[in-house]
């Protein structure tokens, strides 16, 4: 099989390419450039961010790696589309008091979308596309459907960021690391001499203060309680996210959390932990990843943040591209703009974008 492998220069993608070549596949490497010098968006402080000038400089090292494996190497510039699709969406969402998932949109629209379209347009042919993501893909013969599942290494599992891949994308994607532990991948990397032991990895898409990407001058406003009492001042609601506890600059008998963001009045609403729970979340812009509906009465595990272990909930389909989640215990992580992904054990059932907020349960249809 001819496999195009997305290479970032890091441990995971390097080992993925090595394993596929070792299995006898005809492997070619490709790197997408998402940074451009004339971008109006600032460069992050951390060089290990995937959106960084340093990533463009990695192409020399990646080319050396490909020569070592004796595989062709391609570099494709996706920076314009990345800026217009991922970064502009990021800015727009934050300025509307929503918290986006840039990595989710990048995977669906750029890495597994335009990058492959650009590759074909440049005459690069391939049967499948592979990355170093930690996730697994299976095929259900009874349902004639491809399924996305959690990785073996649950601590490294990235299925939350991949739920928007559709059936066509899943059918032509390989995740060679899905059945391995991160420790095993590192051991392979060191044994092959690809990187030095203890090599640092990319941690975030930006790795800096997100407000820098928004590019809006500070606008002072009030930090208030749910009943409107003013507790302090802030420099702009976009500097905060729902669920945030640290950095509020307010002394209280118990820790305070951000419960809501009001973009109209530029207010940050805070309260104690027991005030922030939400029993219901409405989700739109849904991708039916591995199933087209939910089983009535079944308890699913729902993740509303990537780092969450999942919360038990009943889930009901409410429209062609929407569903409602009823948590068995109130959740503090329900944040408009974030992704909500539904799991049945290790199976990614479906996912979408949270439209409800702790103080606004209005459902928004797609």
Structure description:
The longest helix has 20 residues, at 102-121. Helix 1 packs across helix 7 (182-192). This protein has a 6-stranded antiparallel barrel with strand order 12-15-14-13-16-17. A 5-stranded parallel beta sheet has the order 3-2-1-4-7, sandwiched between helices. The protein has 3 domains: 2-192, HUPs (Rossmann fold), CATH 3.40.50.620; 217-275, SH3 type barrels (Roll), CATH 2.30.30.280; 278-354, Elongation Factor Tu (Ef-tu), domain 3 (Beta Barrel), CATH 2.40.30.10. Strand 1, helix 1 (11-22) and strand 2 (26-33) form a beta-alpha-beta unit. The chain has helices at 11-22, 53-57, 59-69, 79-95, 102-121, 167-171, 182-192, 210-214, and strands at residues 2-6, 26-33, 73-77, 128-130, 136-140, 145-149, 173-174, 221-224, 230-234, 256-262, 267-272, 278-287, 300-303, 311-319, 322-331, 339-344, 347-354. With 366 residues, it is an alpha/beta fold. The radius of gyration is 21 Å and the shape is globular.
Radius of gyration: 21 Å
Distance between the termini: 39 Å
So, the CATH homologous superfamily of the largest domain? Answer: HUPs
Percent helix: 10-25%
Side by side, the strands of the main sheet go: 12-15-14-13-16-17
Q: Main beta sheet: strand number and arrangement? A: 6 strands, antiparallel, barrel
SSE pattern, N- to C-terminal: EHEHHEHHEEEHEHHEEEEEEEEEE
Q: How many domains comprise the coordinates?
A: 3
Protein structure class: alpha/beta
CATH architecture designation of the largest domain: 3-Layer(aba) Sandwich
| CATH class call of the largest domain | Alpha Beta
């Amino acid at each position: 099989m001819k496999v195009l492998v997305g290479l970032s220069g890091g441990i995971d993608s390097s080992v993925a390419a090595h394993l596929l070549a070792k299995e006898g596949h005809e492997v070619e490497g490709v790197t997408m450039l998402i940074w451009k010098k004339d971008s109006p968006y600032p460069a992050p402080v951390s060089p290990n961010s995937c959106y960084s000038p340093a990533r463009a400089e990695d192409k020399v090292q990646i080319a050396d790696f490909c020569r070592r494996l004796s595989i062709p190497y391609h570099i494709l510039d996706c920076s314009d589309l990345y800026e217009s699709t991922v970064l502009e969406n990021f800015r727009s969402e934050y300025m509307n008091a929503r918290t986006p998932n840039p990595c989710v949109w990048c995977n669906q629209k750029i890495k597994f979308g335009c990058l492959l379209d650009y590759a074909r347009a440049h005459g690069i042919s391939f049967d499948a596309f592979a990355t170093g993501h930690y996730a697994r893909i299976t095929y259900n013969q009874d349902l004639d459907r491809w399924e996305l599942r959690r990785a073996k290494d649950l601590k490294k599992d990235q299925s939350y960021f991949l739920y928007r891949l559709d059936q066509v994308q899943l059918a032509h994607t390989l995740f060679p690391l899905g059945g391995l532990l991160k420790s095993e991948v590192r051991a392979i990397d060191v044994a092959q001499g690809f990187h030095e032991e203890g090599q640092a990895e990319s941690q975030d898409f930006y790795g800096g203060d997100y407000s820098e990407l928004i590019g809006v001058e500070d606008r002072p406003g009030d930090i208030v309680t749910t009943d409107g009492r003013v507790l302090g001042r802030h420099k702009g609601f976009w500097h905060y996210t729902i669920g945030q506890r640290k950095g509020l600059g307010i002394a209280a008998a118990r820790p305070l959390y951000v419960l809501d963001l009001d973009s109209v009045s530029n207010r940050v609403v805070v309260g104690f932990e027991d005030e922030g729970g939400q029993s219901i979340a409405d989700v739109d812009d849904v991708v039916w990843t591995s199933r087209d509906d939910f089983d009535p009465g079944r308890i699913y595990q729902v993740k509303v943040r990537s780092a969450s272990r999942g919360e038990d909930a009943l889930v009901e389909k409410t429209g062609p591209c929407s569903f409602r989640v009823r948590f068995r215990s109130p959740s503090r992580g329900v944040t408009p703009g974030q992704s909500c992904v539904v799991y049945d054990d290790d199976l990614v059932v479906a996912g979408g974008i949270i439209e409800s907020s702790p103080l606004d349960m209005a459902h928004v249809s797609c």
